[in-house]
Design brief:
By secondary structure, the chain is of the alpha/beta class. 51% of the residues lie in helices and 19% in strands.
């Protein structure tokens, strides 16, 4: 199952993605709104991890997108 990690700090996103991959998960991470939107619109992810500093507006749109595309179901 593909995992998308959204976070504001690139170093933290890199660490989280590395940890997930080491545990056998297929993971990608981004730290900008533009990259997140691009991936959410074009790629199929089963899990979405949103960091605490992520913009509330994008988190809401991401949740709506996830629900409409079946991510996490």
């Amino acid at each position: 199952m593909r995992t998308l990690v959204l976070g504001r700090t690139s170093a933290r996103v890199t660490e989280v993605v590395a940890t997930l991959r080491a545990d056998g998960f297929e993971a990608e991470g981004v730290s900008t709104d533009e990259d997140a939107r691009r991936l959410l619109e074009s790629e199929g992810f089963g899990v979405l991890v949103i960091g605490g500093e992520w913009s509330r507006a994008l988190a809401q749109r991401s949740r709506s997108s996830r629900l409409s595309t079946g991510c996490g179901q």
